[in-house]
Design goal:
- It contains no helices and no strands.
- The protein is low in regular secondary structure and 58 residues long.
- This is Protein GerPD.
């Protein structure tokens, strides 16, 4: 995948991250290279896939 980004001026005063998904990134600013990797050390039989639990709202 080729992805072109044109950077403009940015001003970030506050970031509030309430949850992180299993495949997510959060970055602010310039990035030349992003290297993705994954590690999963839990045996498959212990993985429980079920309904998602909503994050509490303030």
């Amino acid at each position: 995948m080729n992805f072109t980004v044109v950077n403009k001026e940015i001003c970030v005063e506050n970031i509030n991250i309430r949850g992180v998904a299993s495949a997510s990134m959060a970055f602010i600013g310039d990035t030349d290279t992003i290297v993705l990797s994954s590690a999963f050390d839990t045996p498959p039989e212990s993985l429980i896939v079920g309904p998602f639990v909503p994050l509490p709202s303030e």
